[in-house]
Here is the input.
Amino acid sequence: MVPVGSVVISIDAELGWGFHDLDEPPRDRVESGRRGWESLLSILERHDVPATWAVVGHLMLEDCDGEHADHPAPPGWFERERTTWRERPDLRFGPDLVRAVVDSPADHEFASHTFSHVLFGDLETTRELAVAELERAQDLAADWGLALESLVYPRNDVGHREALADCGFHAYRGRSPTPDGVVGLLDSRLRNRSLLVEPSVDEYGLVNVPASLFLFGFEGPLRTVAESVWTDPMLAQARRGVDQAAAGDGVFHVWLHPNNLVSERDDARLEALVGYIARLRERTDLTVETMGSVAARVLESPADDSFPTPR
Ligand SMILES: [Zn+2]
Ligand SMILES: [Zn+2]
Here is the structure.
């Protein structure tokens, strides 16, 4: 296989759905979903950097009854739609935002984050529910003339991979081999470790494109020490990953949620990183891929004979 160094950016795009099952959704994150989405989209567009947008399918709806009686989710799963978020369509629907991604000139991959953010690794999530979440997402995409090939599991909770393959998907984001957050940044042994990941084909013929780094895994009091974007330790770490991808054979896979962009300081971190990726793409052999293009490359590679041909 030809050595390839690439960067993948994946985005968990969910508005309220990332928090609807929590007793106390974090207010600043919930309220930042729309501003973050628009900001993220414009930064990527400005630098012509494509990303994998894993969108919660429910956001493609214009409206709903808040009941979803035909959906096999446990009782109460959609309760917030009928109670505290009843008058908050901006948290439950986002066809305008989804359309902006699909129409963007940056050639993004349109991917899935399930229909309603069900946790697939949860023991109470049946195969029936997993299939319903994936089929509903595929049906909505088909209504828009799209087909979903990649999935980002809600909270990276990997599960029901067989159902994923049966529902027409080819790729998913696997867990990062290194710990996210403060531990990963402050432990010097981890700090010096490679951030590159190796996509692999699993027993269902799905390509696992593991995460390298959660771009907002270092927050709270420690972050306030880093006053400017130039002393931001997370940005330094992410740039190191981009450097490694530019120099070597592997994928640096960074991810975030639109709602992580709570303030202009967060926009600045992303702007600095995406600008850096664009500059290195210009000056080196670095490429920017999506999860879908990584999967296509891996599945087409004749050298990959370690697994039987998918069904
Ligand atoms: Zn609904
Ligand atoms: Zn999510």
The chain has a mean pLDDT of 91. The longest strand covers residues 5-13. Residues 27-46 form the longest helix (20 residues). The beta strands are 5-13, 52-55, 109-112, 150-151, 171-172, 200-201, 207-208, 213-214, 250-256, 287-289.
